[in-house]
Structure formats: structure tokens, C-alpha cells
Amino acid sequence: MAKVMISLPDELLAQLDARARERGSTRSATIRELAEAAFGQRANQLAQRMSELDGRATAHGGDVVSTLKAGRPA
Amino acid sequence: MTFLDASVLLAAEDLDDAHHDASAGLLQTGALSTLDLAVYEITNVAELRWRDRAASLRLRERVWAIAELGILVRVDQALAERAAELSRQHDLSAYDAAYVAGAERLGLPLASCDERDLISRGLARAPADLLSQLRAERSPEPE
User: Fold this and answer.
1) What are the residues whose beta carbons fall under 8 Å from the beta carbon of B81, sequence distance 6 or more?
2) A-chain residues within 8 Å CB-CB of B12?
3) Which of B10, B15, B113 lies closest to A58 in CB terms?
4) Model pTM score
5) Mean pLDDT computed over B27-46
6) Which of A41, A73, B113, B124 is least enclosed, having the fewest CB within 10 Å?
């Protein structure tokens, strides 16, 4: 696991420390937990959006790479 | 998180493509990024090659969703210069080099269906390959 130094405004640091104390945790673990939750939430929302667009794909002959490259000017 | 080139987005819309299932599966992971170039490339194929307006709209919806909830890298001078350098170095089209430069900027693996120019040279990985890795990382450790 990598170790990093970050700069935080005092008020944000106070919130972070309060949350860590309340959970009997550390600053590091709390930042990690919050980052995982934030990124996980966004990934879940994006996966949901992708899901809503699924199921309507049709057949276009395959080999999308050749089709894609054929449309690029040399 | 995975950086997508246009071929992965297109393969997810083409049932005939050999990478269709894996590309659709990779999109389902939700941790996605791409380059602004992709929106023009997918539109070009869907509108002018496939003549499929519905697919064209869906493809752009996917890119806008990535822009909102993932990361959309937009071209700037540094990216264009790096793409030019990669193009010379690997004898790649500027288009392919731009995706490689975008993935490199974010420090993410590039997913592509392009075996000849990208995967075989170690510049990108196939959707199925990345999907297997992601699923293995997410599955619980055996006790």
C-alpha cells in the first residue's frame, strides 16, 4: 500500500478527525473508506447507466476495428 | 478503472463483433474513462458506416455518462504532443496514439479490440483480458 502526503483545509481536517474518532478509526483509514465509497458510488451509477443502454445492440457485421479505421482519414 | 478506446464502445453495440460480450461486460464495471476523440469516432462509424441512428445516440449517451461519472480526457497541447511522439515511436496513427497518450496520462490500462496495432505491441489489452482481471480482483479470496 502506498503512503502519500496530502494537504487539507483546517475545517475539512477537523471533520475528518471527528469522523475518525467517532468510529475509533485513523485519519488514513477514514480517508481510504471515504474515497472508496465515493468512487464506488460513481462506478455503480455509471454501471447502472450503461446497463440501461444495454440489450438494444444489433448486428453490424463485426470487425469494428476495421470499420473504425476505414473511416479515419490517412 | 479502465481507459477505453472507441473500438470497445463500438464492439459493445455490434452483436457480430468477436469482442462484443467482453466489451459490454467491461462497460458494466462502471469504472471507466475515455478520450474526447471517441465521441467523433463512434458517431462516424454509427452514422456513416452502420447508418444506425439509434446506435449512434446510445453510443454518445455512453460517452456522456463516462464524462459525468467517470473521466473524459480532453485534448490539450501536452496530450497532442505526446500523441505525436508515440505515433513516431511506435509507427501508430495519431488516432491510436492519442488513446495511448490519454491512458498514459491517467496511469490506466487502455482497453482496445485492436490486436494488430495496439494489443500485440503491448500498448493496450483486450476487453476479455481486462475483464477477467477485474473479476478476479473483485472476487473474495478463497479461505
Assistant:
1) none
2) 57
3) B15
4) 0.91
5) 97
6) A73
